[in-house]
Amino acid sequence: ELKPAEDNLITVAINNTLSSDTVPQGSVVWQNNARFPAGYFTLNYNFDFFNYAGIHRSVFLYTTPKVFIDDIDVTTKIDGTTGHVTYAIRTVAEARNAPLEDTQGVDVTVELRDQTGKVVGTADGSSGEISVPNAKLWWPFTMVQNDRDAGYLYTLVVTSTDSESKERDVYRLKVGIRTVSWTEKQFLINN
């Protein structure tokens, strides 16, 4: 249990033991002779590098309020020059001893902001749609020549507020408005 304003100890165990279920694959060879101590093993593998172990990427430790945003699903579509951002948000109410997805008493608000931070659409509720007139569409950088807005991303700002404790959780998600489709011979972005 986390002790606020005190030192807290976090222990991380790392294991580079190979098996048929690991990548890369290998096996454990138990050494049962007098040359090795009891319980000693070596690894058997068929690759030409040493199987180092450790944490090789950034690790972030964060806290959440007792009612928090657990998952966000976003889909986009285009109708002429209007972009549509459809969202579904799942919150978790740990404090209520309720089913995990019980969102009763949790208010959810959603804002869609452009790259300058201007709000271009809002919605209330854990699911819905925001329409953006004259939307700047997401394109791969190399697809549209001299387009400064290629790769354009909006920011979806989701806020959940617990009606009992008034605690808030805020999550920001980058969103590109675009469509993806295909035929037998083509892969189409924005039709």
Number of DSSP-assigned strands: 11
Q: Name the shape in a single word.
A: flat
Order of helices and strands: EEEEEEEEEEE
The secondary-structure class comes to mainly beta
Helix content: under 10%
Ends distance: 52 Å
Number of helices: 0
Whole-number mean pLDDT: 88
Spans of 5+ residues with little confidence (pLDDT < 50)?
Answer: none
Residue share in β-strands:
35-45%
Largest sheet: 4 strands, antiparallel
Structural Rg: 25 Å
**Strand order, largest beta sheet:** 6-5-8-9
Protein name: Glycoside hydrolase family 2 immunoglobulin-like beta-sandwich domain-containing protein
Family: Belongs to the glycosyl hydrolase 2 family.
InterPro entries: Ig-like_GH2 (IPR006102)
GO molecular function: beta-glucuronidase activity; carbohydrate binding
How would you explain this protein's 3D organization?
Belongs to the glycosyl hydrolase 2 family. This is Glycoside hydrolase family 2 immunoglobulin-like beta-sandwich domain-containing protein. Residues 67-178 form the Glycoside hydrolase family 2 immunoglobulin-like beta-sandwich domain. One of its GO terms (biological process) is carbohydrate metabolic process. InterPro entries: Ig-like_GH2. This protein has 191 residues and is mostly beta strands. 0% of the residues lie in helices and 40% in strands. The protein contains no helices and eleven strands. Strand 3 and strand 4 (82-93) form a beta hairpin. It has strands at 27-30, 41-44, 67-79, 82-93, 106-113, 119-124, 127-132, 154-162, 168-175, 180-182, 187-189. The strands form four sheets. Strands 6-5-8-9 form a four-stranded antiparallel β-sheet, with no helix packed on it. The protein has a three-stranded antiparallel β-sheet with strand order 3-4-7, with no helix packed on it. Strands 1-2 form a two-stranded antiparallel ribbon. It is flat, with a radius of gyration of 25 Å. The mean pLDDT is 88.
